[in-house]
């Protein structure tokens, strides 16, 4: 199957089979795909929480308006945007570039200037929004990677971010929950899996210039 065929197969899973869990290898593949997701300047302006603790997930389910995916899926993935991006954050990224590519840090002065300017030129609110946009890109990669691996995923915005932040202790970590995804395997009882996918026709969606 091509990736397009697999994207036709996937859907936003509502009911998961609680008896089926991802193997460690499957989970690692999903996380590696997220790690490889593109982000603005490569800053990866977020962290990704893999929530498996049943007690924590029960609390998160309440903060997600009782949606069963939160507790019934194999794992719950929480994308949390950085809220404290500052000069130190930018310099740490340059340190990583120098180390990873084995280059003198001084040779990265131009890149460092661009990174620090991108951070300092934005207000706090703009930086948080910037980070949240990058988290959504990572979510898209997760959804695509899951489909490619035959794993079901349910991306979700229906939750109370403030309550999620409190339950997961994110504020203290300089993070805020942005979007979540349940991953696992669909239940045969999920009526949504039988529905025909509804999408705009191509002539309405695409504009060729």
TrEMBL record:
Entry GO MF terms: oxidoreductase activity
One Pfam assignment: Nitroreductase
Keyword set, alphabetical order: Flavoprotein, FMN, NADP, Oxidoreductase
Superkingdom classification of source: Bacteria
Signal peptide bounds: none
Cofactor requirements of the protein: FMN
Cited InterPro entries: NfsB-like, Nitroreductase, Nitroreductase-like
PANTHER family for this protein: NAD(P)H NITROREDUCTASE YDGI-RELATED, NITROREDUCTASE
Family as reported in the entry's similarity comment: Belongs to the nitroreductase family.
Protein name: NAD(P)H-dependent oxidoreductase
Species assigned in the record: Mucilaginibacter pedocola
